[in-house]
Specification:
Chain B: It is found in: Nucleus. Chain B: Keywords: Cytoplasm, Nucleus, Proteasome. The complex is a heterodimer of chains A (280) and B (219). Helices cover 35% and strands 26% of the residues of chain A. With 280 residues, chain A is α+β, with helices and mostly antiparallel strands. In chain A, α5 crosses α6 and α7 packs antiparallel against α8. Chain B is α+β, with helices and mostly antiparallel strands. Chain B has one domain: 4-Layer Sandwich (Glutamine Phosphoribosylpyrophosphate, subunit 1, domain 1). Chain B has a 5-stranded antiparallel beta sheet with strand order 10-1-2-11-12, with helices on one face. In chain B, α3 runs antiparallel to α4. Classes of the chains: A alpha+beta (280), B alpha+beta (219). Chains A and B meet through α2, α4, β5 and α5 of A and α1, α2 and β9 of B.
């Protein structure tokens, strides 16, 4: 059982395994240990059944009105250009067919020069990026220099790879500026970690990609880059039911990230309809 | 519906909770009807739980998980107080709940929880969670079986969304309590799982927690 071994559960006898689990909820409450990469398994409880991914899927299908719906979200994008990296996200969280929230913060500020985006399961992204933030801080204190974007994304990918196939849902982009310049990596829940100039993740990414691919040039000015990112999110929000509400834009520069704006996508859509101008 | 033979550890017990944050107060409300598949288990069960540090936990879903979550949380709040020599603040408690609930990522607490209280500046704060601990700070929150009925009314009344006068409407504590009672009375006309009574708690720095019980339809 893969999940059992990840959580530190040792057993050779299949019949007695439920009796001999060392890591359980009591341990947490007695000691309240600090959460870090090495002892995450102490925090995550071993479930009493074999296949978590299959079981959670069954439970979310409305049997006897029991419907466990996790918050999932939607359209995020990031691209490198000559003046740094632009990150743009929407802010809608859906739970099943219901809009649970229109003001979710999908850009997670790991530290002043590292950003992570959230797509897929909200809790998964928030939790693992928080663990990553702690690990980055410890690295900085131990080595007296900022962690590189490549290393940070590698840490996250390795952590999540341990739980591969168990139902985590996470598609995140790690954006930062280190001594090699701007960095952009996409990390997903199956342990995939790739670097490129342009990414979009989420249910609305197909719409965002079409706008981005049409208008992207590496030599863009900052204003054009922000406009492109904004248009991509607004159009994705318009066509994708699970994306919408507020568009948030961040700019990653050499001095760290800067929040550019957060405005309603609806208002922009009306404005674009009236303007009918496109630069590409 | 044909149900496959298997192990179903969860149940869905109804209950609707509402929380509204103000400048120096928090108003929370819960109905007192507990149902399971159209039978009423209890008419006096409130979904609001007072925590050790004067925060209010609102939790609906599966009652077994709700009570366990509350018990485990109480223990951890006390541990915090003993190790740090001060009561835990509501934002810190919200973060703790988030991590605790994620600890059960592969066998979730089937609860929709809201934690409310006053933050360190005395301002009201409301934090909502999904079943695995995704935390969002909100101005107001509603969870439970009648959430689809009540949440749009809150959107329109508090933030003026989709009305002819958009924009946030500031209310005093007493006006908020009255609004919430009216909302519950309206919702119980159209929801079978809502009724019996609504318990409204107001949390302020000076007076602590004040409770008010308002009867609703019992049919």
């Amino acid at each position: 059982m893969a999940l059992a071994s990840v959580l530190g559960f040792k057993s050779n006898d299949a019949f007695n395994r439920s009796l001999r689990c060392d890591k359980n909820d009591d341990t947490i409450d007695e000691l309240c240990p600090k959460l870090n990469v090495e002892n995450i398994s102490q925090f995550i409880t071993l479930p009493p059944y074999a296949d978590p991914a299959k079981y959670l899927k069954m439970v979310s299908d409305n049997v006897d009105r029991v419907k466990i719906q996790f918050l999932k979200g939607t359209t995020t994008l990031a691209f490198k250009f000559r003046n740094g990296v632009i990150v743009a996200v929407d802010s809608r969280a859906t739970a099943g067919g219901f809009i649970a929230s229109g003001e979710v913060k999908k850009v997670i500020e790991i530290n002043p020069y590292l950003l992570g985006t959230m797509a897929g399961g909200a809790a998964d992204c928030a939790f693992w990026e928080r663990v990553l933030a702690r690990h980055c801080r410890i690295y900085e204190l131990r080595n007296k220099e900022k962690i590189s974007v490549a290393a940070a994304s590698k840490i996250l990918a390795n952590m999540v790879f341990e739980y591969r196939g168990m139902g985590l849902s996470m598609g995140t982009m790690i954006v930062g500026w280190d001594k090699r310049g701007p960095g952009l990596y996409m990390v997903s829940d199956d342990g995939e970690r790739i670097s490129d100039n342009l990414f979009s993740v989420g249910s609305g990414s197909i719409y965002a990609y079409s706008i981005l691919d049409a208008g992207y040039k590496y030599e863009m000015s900052t204003i054009d880059a922000i406009d492109l990112a904004r248009r991509a999110i607004v159009h994705a929000a318009h066509r994708d039911a699970a994306s919408g509400n507020i568009v948030r834009i961040y700019h990653m520069k050499e001095t760290g990230w800067e929040k550019i704006e957060e405005k309603d996508t609806n208002d922009y859509m009306y404005q674009y309809r009236e303007d009918k101008t496109m630069n590409f | 519906m044909v149900k496959q033979h298997g192990w179903y550890p969860y149940e869905f017990q109804s209950g609707t909770t509402v929380a509204v944050a103000g400048d120096d107060y928090v108003v929370v409300a819960s109905d007192t009807r507990l149902t399971e598949n159209y039978s009423i288990q209890s008419r006096t069960h409130s979904n609001v739980y007072k925590m050790h540090n004067n925060s209010l936990l609102l939790s609906t879903g599966f009652l077994g998980d709700v009570l366990t979550l509350k018990k485990t949380l109480d223990g951890r709040i006390k541990t915090y107080e003993y190790t740090h020599n001060k009561p835990i603040s509501t934002p810190a408690l919200a973060q703790m709940i988030s991590i605790m609930m994620y600890g059960r990522r592969f066998f979730p607490y089937y609860t929709n929880t809201i934690i409310t209280g006053l933050d360190t500046d005395g301002k009201g704060c409301v934090y909502g969670f999904d079943p695995v601990g995704s935390m969002t700070q909100q101005l107001y929150a509603c969870e439970g079986s009648a959430m689809p009925l009540i949440l749009p009314i809150l959107d329109a009344n508090i933030l003026g969304k989709n009305t002819s006068k958009p924009g946030q409407v500031k209310r005093t504590k007493e006006e908020t309590v009255k609004m919430i009672k009216d909302i519950y009375m309206a919702a119980c006309e159209r929801s079978v799982e809502l009724g019996d009574a609504v318990v409204v708690h107001t949390l302020t720095k000076e007076k602590g927690i004040e409770t008010d019980v308002h009867p609703l339809r019992k049919d």
